[in-house]
């Protein structure tokens, strides 16, 4: 079941930290010409997809969200329902997995960005496979998981472009990538620009 597709023109206002630039190539004119396809892979036992869909809609981002079939029962039984029941569990699983792969491979290969969610309760082997498959296709990958399982996912995270802990961070990442919008700093009043905190990278800009 697809949770949401959010498409709209980008709002002109920019929120968050004020910055200055000579030319802003994150302009709404350029971004509005493209609808970004974002594939949401991984854990199906929480509402993280809905949170992202709601955030995309609220920020009016030009994003089309896709995902695998998130009905556990349907994804298990689709092959047997359509092609007939199997006597052995491995065969039952195989025809279902192959049928689900038609959707997964198609939508993942068409995606501009792939978000892969890992939860604490279940081991999402298919999510790890999707992350590797997306990386092999050269797709930008955003991983999403609680910090408690960061160590177990260190190799996956090392290949990701962005590692998020909360769905809202995924939305903020998309808003920045597409629109140039930045949220209020995560560190709040403690936030300091890099030039002030660590010095200018180029002393003669």
Largest sheet: 5 strands, parallel
Can you count the beta strands?
Answer: 5
**What is the tally of helical segments?**
8
Per the principal axes of the C-alpha atoms, what is the gross shape? elongated
Report the order of strands and helices: HEHEHHEHEHEHH
Radius of gyration: 20 Å
Helical amount: 40-55%
| Secondary-structure-derived class | alpha/beta
Q: Strand arrangement, largest sheet?
A: 2-1-3-4-5
Question: Terminal Cα separation, in Å?
Answer: 51 Å
Describe, in plain words, how this protein is organized in 3D.
- The chain has helices at residues 28-31, 48-58, 72-83, 89-110, 125-136, 154-159, 167-179, 194-197; strands spanning 36-42, 63-66, 113-117, 141-144, 162-164.
- It has a five-stranded parallel sheet, sandwiched between helices.
- It contains eight helices and five strands, in the order αβαβααβαβαβαα.
- With 205 residues, the chain is α/β, with parallel strands linked by helices.
- The longest helix is centred in the middle third of the chain and has 22 residues, at 89-110.
- The model is unreliable at 1-24 (pLDDT under 50).
- It is elongated and about 70 Å long.
